[in-house]
Amino acid sequence: PAVARGCGGCNWQHIDPAHQHAFKTAIVADALARTARITNVSVRTGGRVPAAGYRTTLRVMLDRSGQPAFRRAGSHQPVVIEDCLVAHPALAALLAELHLPGAAEAQLRVSAHDQTSALSWSPAGTAVGRQIPAALEAAPDTAIIEVVRNIPLRVSSEAFFQSGAAAAALLVDAVARAAGPPESWGSGPV
Fold first, then answer.
1. What CA–CA distance (Å, rounded) separates 27 from 20?
2. What percent of the chain stands above pLDDT 70?
3. What backbone torsions phi and psi does residue 126 show, to the nearest 5 degrees?
4. How far is 159 from 169, CA to CA, in rounded Å?
5. Band of the pLDDT at 28, cuts 50, 70, 90?
6. Contacts of 100 by beta carbon, 8 Å cutoff, 6+ apart
7. Beta partners for 154?
8. How far is CA 107 from CA 40, 45, 72, 143, 144, in A?
9. How many whole angstroms separate alpha carbon 66 and alpha carbon 129?
10. Could you report the per-residue pLDDT of 110-124, keeping only the tens digit for each?
């Protein structure tokens, strides 16, 4: 529904989740052929994140009144959103209550592990008339603990992290498969 209203945040929502992997695989194979000149490559797919409710970090712009919005596709115009299909349920609940007059952008993050949350906004240091949900920690050094493959990671409100713990786990799994078991690493050239 948000894409139909012009939201430019999610490029794949118009494609049935069951068919997205085939399209994404074709894009990677095409990019390898055009950019790297690698042809006849076999691109294997890995796992996938759920089609909805997986994203634990959202960066939103704020309209003039401080309401969260996403950018209209191909522009910087706001599309005010009531909810977000891909937002983790705890993140969606916070998003619905957020109001930050005076800020231009905000980044919200929740932990899939324990639903703690963090918020940062820009411009940094801006005094905003904030209406921040009580469950939301808001400070530049605020962080959450996310757990990926049983390893706790401290993720600050402003740091880059994958769209959610499920996506991070898929990357860890891919690297582990590519690297093989530690005993096979040896001490050869890097």
1. 11
2. 88
3. -65, 130
4. 17
5. very high
6. 62, 66, 106, 121, 128, 129, 130, 131, 132
7. 145
8. 41, 30, 18, 12, 13
9. 9
10. 888 888 887 777 766
pLDDT at 125 over 60: no
pLDDT at 153 over 80: yes
- Residue 35's contacts (CB-CB under 8 Å, 6 or more residues apart) are none
Which H helix or E strand runs over 57?
A: strand 57-62
Do residues 58 and 108 lie in contact, with contact meaning Cβ atoms separated by under 8 Å?
yes
What is the pTM assigned to this prediction?
0.78
Instruction: Kindly give, in sequence order, each residue whose CB lies less than 8 Å from that of residue 172, ignoring residues fewer than 6 positions away.
Output: 148, 149
Per the document, the length of the chain is: 190
Rounded Cα distance between 76 and 155, Å, is 28
Give me the phi and psi of 89, to 5 degrees please: -55, -40
